């Protein structure tokens, strides 16, 4: 019997890949052979001596002490691409939220009350206050052209936007999955100088931490919109806060709670919803459960 400890809710469809006759799965399993985790922070966790593999039901692995696992010879499997469509759809929503002011306009509409005439007047005021702008013809910069960045770039093209992408590690194989209309920037700075919107699809590491900081903000077009559906820490919140106040940044959409910026009307914060769809949760769980199973039973390493 293999023992699997789950540190988060893992989709039942994924767990169904681990048959009862071979696997004991639960949230309080001592001496596990493998751990399945979504967002739980494993950095502080004592690593069980019995552990042979970790499956991260998502793309990023920054909640896992990967270097330590590697020293111990424990593979870490993840699910690249399995939640890409879910993230892409939320990025598209974020683009539209930013330029049509959906969050503050919704709050405004919910607070309306009074006579028909008063409401009519308020609606007219709201139409003026929340007038927006459209996406076609504007330029979207996509930093990071992995599974998520690529379909975000293609979605930008489908929305009629000019799209510029940058990824220092872009492979030939990755390149062909991009629409021919996606331009390749020479560098991050080159991209930042030429875009109206910028969205990040990179992991958080020493190279990407504070990728958007006060210096880089100076390079950017006035009125740029920044979207961060990747990880907290890629954007320096204090610098963006100052840039929003000065008007340099038009709007900031981020998929994390944000104490520095949450009260600004042009800031949208979400509770890390990018991968939170039924389909993405199932895809991720199935992908990592299959990889963990293949490793435990056959010693195969399909991705880590
Ligand atoms: C990811 O890295 O794919 C996401 O953070 C997944 C999640 O929300 O758990």
From TrEMBL:
<keyword id="KW-0520">NAD</keyword>
<keyword id="KW-0560">Oxidoreductase</keyword>
<feature type="domain" description="D-isomer specific 2-hydroxyacid dehydrogenase catalytic">
    <location>
        <begin position="27"/>
        <end position="304"/>
    </location>
</feature>
<dbReference type="GO" id="GO:0051287">
    <property type="term" value="F:NAD binding"/>
</dbReference>
<dbReference type="GO" id="GO:0016616">
    <property type="term" value="F:oxidoreductase activity, acting on the CH-OH group of donors, NAD or NADP as acceptor"/>
</dbReference>
<feature type="domain" description="D-isomer specific 2-hydroxyacid dehydrogenase NAD-binding">
    <location>
        <begin position="106"/>
        <end position="274"/>
    </location>
</feature>
<comment type="similarity">
    <text>Belongs to the D-isomer specific 2-hydroxyacid dehydrogenase family.</text>
</comment>
<comment type="pathway">
    <text>Amino-acid biosynthesis.</text>
</comment>
<protein>
    <submittedName>
        <fullName>3-phosphoglycerate dehydrogenase</fullName>
    </submittedName>
</protein>
């Amino acid at each position: 019997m293999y023992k699997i400890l789950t540190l988060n809710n893992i989709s039942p469809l994924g767990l169904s890949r681990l048959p009862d006759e071979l696997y004991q799965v639960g949230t309080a399993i001592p001496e596990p052979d493998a751990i399945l985790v979504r967002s739980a922070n494993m950095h502080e966790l004592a690593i069980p001596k019995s552990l042979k593999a970790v499956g991260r039901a998502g793309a990023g692995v920054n909640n896992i002490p990967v270097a330590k696992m590697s020293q111990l010879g424990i593979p870490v499997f993840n699910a690249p691409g399995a939640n890409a469509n879910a993230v892409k759809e939320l990025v598209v929503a974020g683009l539209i939220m930013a330029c049509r002011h959906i969050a503050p306009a919704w709050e405004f509409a919910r607070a309306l009350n009074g006579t028909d005439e008063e409401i009519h007047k308020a609606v007219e005021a709201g139409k003026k206050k929340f007038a927006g702008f459209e996406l076609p013809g504007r330029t979207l910069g996509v930093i990071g052209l992995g599974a998520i960045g690529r379909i975000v770039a293609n979605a930008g093209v489908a929305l009629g936007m000019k799209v510029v992408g940058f990824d220092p590690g872009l492979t030939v194989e990755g390149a062909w999955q991009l629409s021919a209309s996606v331009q390749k920037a020479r560098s991050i700075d080159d991209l930042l100088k030429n875009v109206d919107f910028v969205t990040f699809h990179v992991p958080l590491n020493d190279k990407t931490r504070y990728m958007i900081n006060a210096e880089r903000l100076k390079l950017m077009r006035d009125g740029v919109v920044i979207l961060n559906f990747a990880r907290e820490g890629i954007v320096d919140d204090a610098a963006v806060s100052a840039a929003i106040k000065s008007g340099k940044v038009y709007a900031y959409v981020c998929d994390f709670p944000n104490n520095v910026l949450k009260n600004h009307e042009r800031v949208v914060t979400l509770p890390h919803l990018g991968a939170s769809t039924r389909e993405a949760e199932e895809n991720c769980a199935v992908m990592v459960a299959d990889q963990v199973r293949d490793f435990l039973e056959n010693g195969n390493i399909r991705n880590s």
